[in-house]
Write a structure and sequence with these properties.
single chain, alpha+beta, six-stranded antiparallel β-sheet, two-stranded parallel sheet, globular
Length: 288
């Protein structure tokens, strides 16, 4: 099955489309397309399969916050869909100038875009606040594309927002998750969703394991199978993200933030923050 962007009923003469719909129909079958697809899972779970010449080369269970990229000509499909809904951006390479595409391909995530060497597609997991910011960008793009007036102006605004979105993806500094197993444990996915809905809680491994009917070691092992990192490290990432947001939006002292988000002390927070973001909290605040 093959899809052409210009063959879609929504096509209005501009090489960019953006959807927020449940996946169904053709997505259930292996298919290719002539556009670059960047999809962000906004709800539910799904198994995403990417095909090589003769067989599946990648099979991943995706959940809310997962973002993946499919270049033109790559065969893929969705299986085992559970209340899945995506933001799907589809654009032709002609949307960007040759210089813009060159800059995009210089970013690690997009380095093999358009190359036959592309095998397993990049997959990034966005933490809750990162997801909210990306979602806001996508909603602005949809608003510009749907405007009935001054289409050229709104198309230009939409393109500038898309470029901002692509750069944010390409320079994303969160750890990539490991290749998820074919049948990810649904209880682990539920645990991750709960942790992300309430990142302010001080999650403990024993409490999480007990909540989902597992021993601590079993829960930790299954969690690492899906994410590539331990539950405690993931909790720490959530807390650092909250600290980063407070540094952007409030004048709260670093010592207070360390206590609020469960760090041993301010020195502990400063050390972990610098390791993740490349600068101390105070230096980050001064960049605002």
């Amino acid at each position: 099955m093959y899809y052409a962007l210009k063959g879609r009923s929504e096509y209005r003469g501009y090489p960019l489309l953006l959807f927020s719909t449940a996946q169904g129909g053709g997505s259930d079958q292996p298919h290719t397309h002539d556009f670059i697809e960047i999809a962000l899972v906004r709800r539910g779970y799904v198994t995403h399969c990417v095909y090589g010449r003769d067989d599946i080369v990648s099979r991943e269970t995706l959940m809310r916050g997962d973002l993946f990229i499919i270049p033109p000509g790559i065969s893929h499909q969705f299986q085992n869909k559970q209340d899945i809904k995506l933001y799907t951006m589809a654009f032709l390479p002609e949307l960007l100038t040759a210089e813009e595409m060159k800059i995009l391909r210089a970013l690690p995530v997009f380095s093999k875009l358009g190359s036959h060497a592309w095998q397993e597609t990049p997959r990034i997991h966005l933490l809750p606040l990162e997801f909210a910011k990306m979602e806001s960008l996508l909603q602005k793009v949809m608003s510009e594309l749907s405007s009935p007036r001054d289409r050229e102006v709104h198309y230009l605004l939409a393109k500038s927002l898309v470029i901002e979105y692509l750069i944010a993806i390409g320079t994303h500094d969160a750890e990539r998750w490991s290749r998820a197993p074919e049948d990810a444990d649904r209880m682990i996915l539920q645990a991750i969703s709960e942790m992300e809905r309430h990142p302010e809680k001080k999650w403990l491994l024993a409490d999480l394991a007990r909540r989902y009917g597992m021993c601590s070691s079993g829960f930790g092992r299954k969690f690492r199978e899906v994410t590539g990192i331990s539950p405690l490290k993931y909790c720490r990432l959530l807390r650092l993200e909250q600290v980063r947001e407070e540094l952007l939006t409030t004048g709260t002292a670093v010592e207070t933030l360390a206590e609020k988000y469960g760090f041993t002390d301010s020195n502990h927070l400063i050390k972990l923050f610098k390791k993740r973001y490349g600068m101390t909290p105070l230096a980050f605040r001064r960049t605002i």
